[in-house]
Amino acid sequence: MIRTAALIVCILVSAGAIAADIPLDQRQPDTAFVSADTRALQSDDTANPGMLTVLDGEALWKEKTGTSNKSCFDCHADAATSMKGVAARYPAFDPAQNKPIDLEQRINLSRVNDQKAPALKFESKELLALAMYVGMQSRGMPVAIEENTQNKPFIEAGRALFEQREGQLALSCAQCHDDNWGKKLAGSPIPQAHPTGYPIYRLEWQEIGSLQRRLRGCMSAVRAEPYDFGSQELVDLELFLMWRSRGMLVETPAVRP
Amino acid sequence: MIGRALVNVPAKAKRGDIIEIKALISHIMETGYRIGITGQPIPRDIINDFVCTYNGEEVFRAKFYPAIAANPFMSFYTVATESGTVALSWTDQHGETQVQTAAITVE
Q1: What is the tens place of the pLDDT at every residue in B17-28?
Q2: Is A58 in CB contact (< 8 Å) with chain B?
Q3: Distance CA A82, CA A15 (A)
Q4: Are A42 and A255 in contact (CB under 8 A)?
């Protein structure tokens, strides 16, 4: 009986060891797991297809809209100054709603409250373009999400989702991205899942997409029902992942296979 | 519809230098082979022709087919002969053409 109990304890301890976080100094950006060709595409601003979207975002930044007839530029001026480092802090805690919101939701808040324009749809070309333009202003800066009393419960909720087995395949995010990164899944290397380059240009999609789209894709792949765009579960996951990538450099617009 | 284009032509080169020209354009390049969520085929919508001229003389031409990915990226080489204009033009299946030019100084 004691031996059985000891064995169970032993299994529990080793299971705990497997699910441990990746030590901070062993973290690698997802760029480290893509092919040299894809990396070259990302690092050349005249070849990176995400740059086309950045140009769209720059045009939208200056476009007057809504009943207030104001553009983003009218309040925030040059994004290169005013938006520098902003994306590196998102998802961020919004005191008005008492919960964290992601960059796309923040952009929509400004549209609805300040520009008096209808919110843009998740994954719409316009919302992605603005998020990419704002995101690029933080390129090369470290992700600056620190755990505090306000966001801690949401980071923990995100971690719980990350470690929870789900779908018909009963796989958690952590089983691939914490425990088996660097190995292959259907011929493709498994990255550590540091979402530092979103919105990304994904070659498989042949277009840009948000982190929420990517997360939903993973959920479908393990045959789970994905959470809706804008759901708190997805924002919590985004927050946990960005916190997990704290200190790593923003790469927006990243190119992924 | 053809969207934005990004071209990269060296601003300066020495006469006789081999220069790389890079061109990226925003286009969905819809193959015509896909089925939409309503069960209807999504009609083909692609760029057919890409031409690069250097001071009016054609130096590179490509034909695009449905297997070319969205947002086609082209990279090719030519020889810097004299100062002038490099013009890149894309024409889609509807006959719409977009032209982007870049100046080059050859010393």
Answers
A1: 999 999 999 999
A2: no
A3: 46
A4: yes
